[in-house]
Enoyl reductase (ER) domain-containing protein
Amino acid sequence: IMQPASNPLDIAMLDGYGKNVIDVLRTLQYFPNNKERFPMVLGRDFSGEVVGVGHGVKHFQVGDEVWGATLAGRQGSHAEYIAVPASIISKKPKTKDHLQCAALPYAGLTAWASIRTVGNLSRYTTRSKRCLVLGASGGVGTFAVQLLKAWNGIVTATCSTGAAELVSKLGADNVIDYMAPDYEAQLLQGPRYDFILDCVGAHQGMSPTKLLHRGRLSTYVTVVSPVLRNTDDLGLVSGTALSAFQALQLTAKELLDGRSARWAFFCTNADALKDMAELVDLGKITPVVSSPFAFAEIPEAYRKMKEGHARGKIVISTVGQQGPMGKLQMA
């Protein structure tokens, strides 16, 4: 955007922003080709300083340091200046710099939607619940482990051997190598789980839902749905219809077995961002930065993302960049 624009809220990208790990280009063929969408700016997470506000903005002012994630289907955060609604941001954590904060919003809000909104867990109801996080070393998984532990859950996490130390340091009570020969046997040790968050999606052998307690309070939530694949293959309308049918089919099947199975997606949530910032400042949640890249290295950052197996989030820094609006002033 042009720097003078201030409708509804401009945010200077000070130190960094996290790179969205979802390939948004997969659905571009169904977007109307208009000037608002093209050229498409990628990226979702951001952390920066407010440089201008619209007339209707009451809770933020110039100079506030804020964080958030841009709306799906809108222009992204891979820019030195962006405009976003004031309703989707909050003050950033005071104890972390912008680069660290930029690693959390998108993954954190996705995990929050999975655990709090869809999973119906909270700081009051998670205590002593047996929780399983499948694929715990990525952006969503590392946040989920820490959030469940902050809410006093008993957390088992799965990851590769190389990520086991990291996941253990994040607070997981039990870490299981998904490549181990006795992987399923380890998952079956002890009582069944009250809550499962699946950040992987593809499983061979035993269905993860079979690891749940039988009963309406045990819930399986996955952040890997077939929505993108279905819309790619069938188009927006037919793909969405098929996805809705599959969601109902999955829910009905598991309800018959006394379990709940649901999909979860990223949702903007300013109140959740406030709670997340408080947990970060209390030391309950630590950003996990896989690799920081300079702005000019964005193509390399995407190549690293495509390889998979990242530990936490890949973050891009704007420090020292010279853009069309002049050198960015650092906090």
